Amino acid sequence: MYFLPQRMKPKEYLVEKCINFKGASAIIYLCLKFLKNLSTTKTDTVLYMRVIFCGKFSTYFHLCSWLWQKQPSYNHVYIPRLVAEGKTKKSSGDFHLDRLLPSTGWVRRAWQLSEDDLLSSTGLDAVVFMRIFTFSVKVFTVAAVIGIFILLPINYFGTQIHASDFVDIPNKSLDLFSIANVNDGSKRLWVHFCVVYFITAFVCYLLFIEYQHISSTRIAYFYASKPQPHQFTVLVRGVPVSRLGKFSESIRVFFMEYHSSTYLSHTVVNTPSRIKSLIEVPAAFVSFKTCYGAAVASDMRQSDNPTEWVTEQAPEPRDVYWPFFSPSFMQRWISKLVVVVLSIVLTVLFLIPVVFVQGLTNLDKLKTLFPFLKGILNITFVSQVITGYLPSLILTLFLKIVPPIMMLFSSMQGFSSYSRIERSACTKVLIFTVWNIFFANVLSGSAIRQLDTFLEPKNIPIKLAVAVPAQASFFIAYVVTNGWTSLSSEIFRVAPLLCTSVKNCVGSHDDEAQSLPFHSEVPRILFFGLLGLTYVFLAPLILPFLLAYFCLGYIVYRNQLLDVYEPRYETGGKLWPTVHNSTIFSLLLLQTLAIGIFGLKKLPVASTLILPLLIITLLFNEYCRKRFLPVFESHSAESVIKKDRENENDPTMPEFLEKLPTAYRDPALKPNQEYAGYRDHNTPLLSSV
Amino acid sequence: MYFLPQRMKPKEYLVEKCINFKGASAIIYLCLKFLKNLSTTKTDTVLYMRVIFCGKFSTYFHLCSWLWQKQPSYNHVYIPRLVAEGKTKKSSGDFHLDRLLPSTGWVRRAWQLSEDDLLSSTGLDAVVFMRIFTFSVKVFTVAAVIGIFILLPINYFGTQIHASDFVDIPNKSLDLFSIANVNDGSKRLWVHFCVVYFITAFVCYLLFIEYQHISSTRIAYFYASKPQPHQFTVLVRGVPVSRLGKFSESIRVFFMEYHSSTYLSHTVVNTPSRIKSLIEVPAAFVSFKTCYGAAVASDMRQSDNPTEWVTEQAPEPRDVYWPFFSPSFMQRWISKLVVVVLSIVLTVLFLIPVVFVQGLTNLDKLKTLFPFLKGILNITFVSQVITGYLPSLILTLFLKIVPPIMMLFSSMQGFSSYSRIERSACTKVLIFTVWNIFFANVLSGSAIRQLDTFLEPKNIPIKLAVAVPAQASFFIAYVVTNGWTSLSSEIFRVAPLLCTSVKNCVGSHDDEAQSLPFHSEVPRILFFGLLGLTYVFLAPLILPFLLAYFCLGYIVYRNQLLDVYEPRYETGGKLWPTVHNSTIFSLLLLQTLAIGIFGLKKLPVASTLILPLLIITLLFNEYCRKRFLPVFESHSAESVIKKDRENENDPTMPEFLEKLPTAYRDPALKPNQEYAGYRDHNTPLLSSV
């Protein structure tokens, strides 16, 4: 770990980072004591002493917030959605003692809710989000049973570690449960081989079922929906400059010419310029009389020049991201490229500024910079906090700002909707996490040497096979500290609670319920899935911890979706392909590791026999891409025509069509009291920071 | 060269192969004498003795065929298209002495023809094919001027080769003209650096102009065309089984349901089974009343299940490839994967069977196998022919069967049209040629070591930089022998002449004019373009030879397109994206080589400064892909609607629409005399072998 102060081990470091900042509950404390009992060397003792210190502090803090949670004065922190929907009062002001007793009612309520109820109250996106948890629980229940009852005994009764290195056993007691302890060339390794095949088959089967279920739910959801503006509208970009210099006129002429029977109206997009006047942008929302008309216009290339009259399905009106309507095809394309480069640079070079800032804040440097603090810095407690706490705090702060930065990058890519931006940011954060938490931890050595490894692809399996199992205990601690504590801070809403407390002092109030930040939550959940699948046959001890994470997460997020978060948009489950692709990547990583491990363990036949599995997994992914992905990209002719026929019988249609031309009215053109809302739209990224 | 008999050098080998089989004209003979004067070592003398021997033989042969060409009895060999179109008599039978005098009239005629004339007489595909030559002539005129007048003197006045190795100068006299002779670290290398930048910019500029010109020609060609069946028709595959078990009924119901206003008729595809009865395939040609109707149906996903009701633009009726209508989505997908694997295997492992067969046919083995031939084999001339001629003949024969094999592979991929199959085969043959002629020659060592090189990407530039310049003289000889002779054998039509002579003896005649075999011709031309761009700054001596090839080719193929080949289909220039991509690949290869060369020549700054150029080239390609490629994939709404309006005023439209339902009638259902034609369709691949 090149970004750590020299004295610290990576395990020690990240555990502390997570614990310190997030806080930990009493359960975590017990679990870490169990881990501590397994491995009791001197450095580990120091580590777990710190963990206990932080754990205690966090437990008290969380307990307090648990009690606060039941006080109506914090309703807008813990049930803001219900407050916003007017289902409960904001605050009664009174203090009741019985509210200090903990209750488990919310757990029962979150558990009993059916998927249909969730769908009707929170939309399909939330349902798809929850299916990540049900999918993961299914996978890791089976994996944990196999891991604990089959692989763990095999690993434990091996003698490899005793044979090779019998002095240092206490230090490696966790390794006794990993594949490292199985003897080289042992026939028992074939059990591990079978597990790799079985897990791949099982996960692929579940992936197929999920994709099928979600895509058919998506179609049913479309059929069942009321007529909505975005179903009748396309976004047109690259409108060529007309002779009159007015985009509006040339749009009307074009669509009257080529879509005369279905064209209804259009709204040209404006952006406010610096001098407060509005500038027309060569983009417009064009509405049609039927869904079919809109679908045809968005699916077909409109103009002979492919860079003009570029159409796409319009987002929902509430989902439109107004600020960045870049004028031309070329500008959009260049900004997209710039963003890709920036994201790669941020991902690869992220650790360099972290190390630099960490280097600035060591005790000696501080003493030189601020000589007047020398007295305070010499106190043992203060110096302990600075050496132990500050580096991890810096890393944590840097990690915290990554999702907002990625959101900012995605918003510059020229996407027209907030949902598309968030989905793109989600992918970027996921890649960032996998690279900086998994690979940077696993592969030791300098950044340049890591790049070297990836320029020699055939060495990757072996290098990973050496490095990954060695980090098993670190990642177990990571799941406990980062995963479990993130759930507890999610349910106790630490950050909003602090914000509200500060605001209460200042006297201002902000009642708007926020939407679930998919771009920071989904990557974390998917990363735990990756950890689980990667370690399933290497060190199965991680599986119960992960299973607990997913079970807790299932309850916690169901509660949050019902009470806390207000959906900001509805994409009909477009998130799932990201989840699918991430899981396929995890499977490929698992197989690459298996190839390396069996090579190291002197079972080259098994190593070779994994290759067909790798190819089959790729083929499976390709098949799913053909079979299901188009459903998430556009609606079929069959769907939209059926929908149009249903709409014909809908008595609200005339009224709906009457309102349609104003659905995409630019917020900047609305009266003043609504203009505040526009300014909110204008700065969503700052508010999400 | 691992596939050669031990004694032979690669240069010697391939020159001989090409010369022996193709024959060479007197000009080639002189050119090779010039090359011989440049490098006169002992082994080279042996080589060029052989060349002269073969060259003489070929010259006589070609002279004979030139004379024959003027005899009307060979009209169906030299002007089959005119014969087929009835513009000239097949054979008069008389012999006239004045016809023995050579004429140059055809050169003037081919030269004077304007592009519009060519377009009207041979279609857009032929025009696009000819634009490969005009494009290449422009590129290599500029490149040759720069190469000969700027780079060649700089190279010649360097002293690197004298300094490093002054004993062996005669053997390396060709290298004196290459970049190898410029001193390491010399500032003159910056001239080469500028040339790399200039050539890239110039080629990109030309590529852009060409793409723009061809795409606008394509659109204009569509507007100017008469109404044609394929503009009104889509091919539907994956028709689900109806309750009645009849596809025809379920197709009618589906399109009446969802395209009631534009649907006209449909024709279900049948394939003949082994027991002579017809089997309905779940595919159909569905015709519409307007182009727009067909375009909408082909651009939109039709069904909620993306693997059912899969639509695509129909090919022309004459272009439909009937034999392989694989029933299901899954089968088509699997056969495609199998074909991809087979093509890769053929490309990578091609040289293994060649070496094996070559090993079987050496003199000693033959003596053991056929003891009774011992007397004949001991004759010096026979043994010379066998040792010198047989290995190259075997390689040539193996190379000759590659294009038909690739055609066979492509036909198994489930494409619906002959044009699509040929385009796919064209790409496959191109990749095959680049790998087996360029890389296999350039990189010495075993096949496995080559693969190793490509698994370590960062070593590629250096390895190529060492290997490629060393092969300059070999590739000059390759251009002369393979390129020039292929043109001469094209104009003299050696193979058809022999076929006809044989058939004349047997007494059968086949008057059908063949179409230009794009899949074997285009890869050769593009490969010469790759050679030229690769060697432009390494060894500019190759450029005049290439320029001569492209100038000759321009005249020869214009003549062939007018008189010999009958277009089998018209795709509207869909070939050009392949040409564009191939040229971009050549530029990237040039830049990769430049990175390696400047590294070797101790000018690392130049090496680094090439990197931005590489990225800019990739971006340029990406931009072209967005800007022009869609034009080649489908027609825009604007195009088809304008076309429909024009058609409304066309008096022939009612008659056309009346005939439309029968345009895609299965040849198997036509009366007997037409069934012969069907059998031809059924075996196009055997006839093209």
From TrEMBL, chains A, B:
It is a multi-pass membrane protein. InterPro entries: Csc1-like (IPR045122), CSC1/OSCA1-like_7TM (IPR003864), CSC1/OSCA1-like_cyt (IPR027815), CSC1/OSCA1-like_N (IPR032880). Coiled coil: none annotated. It is found in: Membrane. Residues 280-323 form the CSC1/OSCA1-like cytosolic domain. It holds the Pfam family RSN1_TM. GO terms for molecular function: calcium-activated cation channel activity. Residues 336-598 form the CSC1/OSCA1-like 7TM region domain. The chain crosses the membrane at residues 139-158, 189-208, 337-357, 429-448, 525-557, 578-597, 603-620. This is CSC1-like protein RXW8. Belongs to the CSC1 (TC 1.A.17) family. GO terms for cellular component: plasma membrane. Residues 63-210 form the CSC1/OSCA1-like N-terminal transmembrane domain. It comes from Papaver atlanticum.
